[in-house]
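Help needed: design a sequence for this.
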C-alpha cells in the first residue's frame, strides 16, 4: 500500500512517483495537517480551532495559515496568554457538544494547563458514568529549533501517557498526521496530539479524500529478523537511517512505528520481539521514566524468555536541554547512536 511506504526526503518521493508511473499525490506533513483541518471544518460545524496566534501570518508553522479568512473568527479563535483558563473554556465547549481543537505551538506551555487536562478533561467521563463526553483535541508541538533550550523544546509525551482517560497520538508521516487528526476530532475522548517540528517538511502519499487512522494500530516500516527497533515520532526516521547503515553490515532490523502511544500497540511489539529476540526503543523524550521505559517494561513482563540480550532505551540524558548549538548536537541522539547500540546488542 502506498501509505505504508516512508520517504525520508522529498527526492526519494519524487523518484518513487516517477518509477510508479501512476498518479501519487504527495503532501508535506504541514500541508496534510492543514488539509485535515479544512475538511473537518467544512464537514462539521461543531469543530473550531482555538489557540494563541493561530491567525497570525505564519499560521502555526503554516498549518492554520489563512483558515480564519475562510471560516471566520468565530471558528478560528485567537486567544490571549492564559493557557489554564482557555483550556477550561475548550473543555466546557466540548461538554456542551462542540468539538474544539486547542493548539499549543509549544508543548512547554501545556504544564500551565495541567489542572484542566488531568483533573477535568481526563476524568469527567469516568466520574459521570460515561454520560459526559469530552471530544477535545489538544494539539502540541515538540522538537528543537535554533537553540530552543530548556523551555521551548521539551518532549513531555510520557506525562500524558501516564494519565488515565487521555489518548496520546504521535504521528510521523503525512498520511498518518491527516488520518489521526481527523480521528482525534471525531473521537469522544480527549486526545493529546503531538507533532515534531522537524517532520513538517517530510513528504508522503496523502489521499485527497477524508479518511481516518485508528488509534492503537502501529505499523512495521521495515521488516527484519535480528533486532526490533521501535521509533517514536521523528525518531522513526532516525531509525530508518540506522536500519540502512546496519543492513550494509549484515544486521537485519525491524522498524516499528507505533503512531499512537495510548492506546499502545503492544501486540505488534511482542510479536516482533518473539521473532528477533532483541529490542531497542528510540524516543524523542527523556529516557528516565519515559515512553521507552514503559515499552521495555512491558516486553520484560510478557516476552522476557524470548530476549537474547537486555532491551535498550535511546532518549535524552537526565539533564535540561542546552541552548548552545554545539551542546545540542551532543544532547540529542540520532541514527549514529542507534547504530552503536544495536551493533553492541547483536554481539552480546
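Sure. Designed sequence:
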Amino acid at each position: 500500500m502506498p501509505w505504508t511506504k516512508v520517504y525520508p526526503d522529498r527526492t526519494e518521493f519524487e523518484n518513487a512517483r516517477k518509477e510508479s508511473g501512476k498518479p501519487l499525490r504527495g503532501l508535506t506533513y504541514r500541508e496534510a495537517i492543514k488539509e485535515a483541518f479544512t475538511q473537518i471544518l467544512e464537514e462539521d460545524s461543531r469543530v473550531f480551532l482555538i489557540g494563541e496566534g493561530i491567525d497570525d501570518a505564519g499560521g502555526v508553522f503554516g498549518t492554520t495559515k489563512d483558515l480564519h479568512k475562510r471560516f471566520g473568527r468565530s471558528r478560528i479563535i485567537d486567544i490571549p496568554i492564559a493557557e489554564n483558563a482557555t483550556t477550561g473554556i475548550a473543555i466546557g465547549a466540548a461538554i456542551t457538544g462542540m468539538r474544539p481543537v486547542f493548539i499549543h505551538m509549544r508543548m512547554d506551555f501545556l504544564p500551565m494547563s495541567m489542572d484542566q487536562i488531568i483533573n477535568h478533561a481526563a476524568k469527567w467521563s469516568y466520574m459521570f458514568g460515561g454520560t459526559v463526553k469530552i471530544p477535545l483535541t489538544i494539539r502540541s508541538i515538540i522538537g528543537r529549533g535554533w537553540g530552543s533550550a530548556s523551555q521551548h523544546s521539551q518532549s513531555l509525551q510520557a506525562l500524558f501517557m501516564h494519565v488515565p482517560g487521555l489518548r496520546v497520538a504521535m504521528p510521523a508521516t503525512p498520511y498518518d498526521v491527516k488520518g489521526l487528526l481527523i480521528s482525534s476530532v471525531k473521537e469522544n475522548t480527549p486526545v493529546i496530539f503531538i507533532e515534531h517540528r522537524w517532520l513538517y517538511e517530510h513528504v508522503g502519499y496523502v489521499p485527497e479524500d477524508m479518511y481516518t487512522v485508528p488509534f492503537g494500530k502501529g505499523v512495521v516500516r521495515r521488516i527484519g529478523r535480528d533486532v526490533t527497533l521501535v521509533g517514536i515520532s521523528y525518531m522513526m526516521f532516525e531509525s530508518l537511517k540506522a536500519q540502512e547503515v546496519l543492513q550494509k553490515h549484515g544486521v537485519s532490523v525491524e522498524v516499528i512505528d507505533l503512531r499512537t502511544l495510548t492506546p499502545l500497540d503492544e501486540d505488534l511489539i511482542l510479536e516482533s520481539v518473539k521473532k528477533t529476540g532483541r529490542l531497542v526503543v528510540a524516543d524523542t523524550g527523556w529516557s528516565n521514566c519515559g515512553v521507552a521505559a514503559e515499552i521495555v517494561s512491558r516486553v520484560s513482563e510478557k516476552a522476557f524468555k524470548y530476549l537474547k540480550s537486555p532491551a535498550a532505551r535511546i532518549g535524552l540524558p537526565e539533564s535540561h536541554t542546552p541552548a548552545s548549538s554545539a551542546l545540542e548536537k551532543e544532547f540529542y541522539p540520532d541514527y549514529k547512536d542507534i547504530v552503536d547500540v544495536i551493533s553492541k546488542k547483536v554481539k552480546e
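Residues 119 and 163 are 10 Å apart (CA to CA).
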